[in-house]
């Protein structure tokens, strides 16, 4: 090898898909330059393949997550429907039970406070 590559690459401003190459014509070793460019292209191709496989994996994962979410929403909807039917069938006695329980608790606290003052 005759040292570092003598080409310089820079992206043209505004257009990221164009690359400008400047090669020093006095010290040209085209085989070495082509080999270096092929190596860079191979590395870029490997990176893009990795990105593609990762994107496919993430897309499959998101699809599975979406299906799980749809199933969970359907289950919640069915359970809410059953609960509403049960409340209608059984009546609204549960509200009365809660109110009576609250009154009983307040009465117990009231009696306890009266007894503890003595």
Automatic annotation (TrEMBL):
It is a single-pass type IV membrane protein. It is found in: Endoplasmic reticulum membrane; Golgi apparatus membrane. One of its GO terms (biological process) is protein transport. It comes from the Eukaryota. Residues 24-86 form the T-SNARE coiled-coil homology domain. Its main location: endoplasmic reticulum. One of its GO terms (cellular component) is Golgi membrane. Keywords: Coiled coil, Endoplasmic reticulum, Golgi apparatus, Membrane, Protein transport, Transmembrane, Transmembrane helix, Transport. Gene3D superfamilies: 1.20.5.110. Belongs to the BET1 family. This is Bet1 At4g14600. It comes from Olea europaea subsp. europaea.
């Amino acid at each position: 090898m005759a040292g570092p590559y003598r080409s310089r690459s820079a992206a043209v401003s505004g257009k990221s898909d164009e690359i400008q190459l400047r090669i020093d014509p006095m010290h040209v070793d085209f085989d070495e330059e082509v080999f270096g460019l092929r190596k860079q292209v191979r590395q870029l191709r490997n990176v893009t393949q990795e990105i593609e496989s990762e994107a496919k994996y993430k897309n499959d994962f998101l699809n599975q997550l979406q299906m799980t979410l749809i199933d969970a929403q359907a289950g919640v909807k069915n359970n809410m429907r059953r609960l509403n039917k049960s409340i209608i069938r059984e009546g609204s006695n549960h509200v009365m039970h809660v109110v009576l329980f609250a009154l009983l608790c307040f009465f117990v606290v009231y009696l306890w406070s009266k007894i503890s003052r003595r």
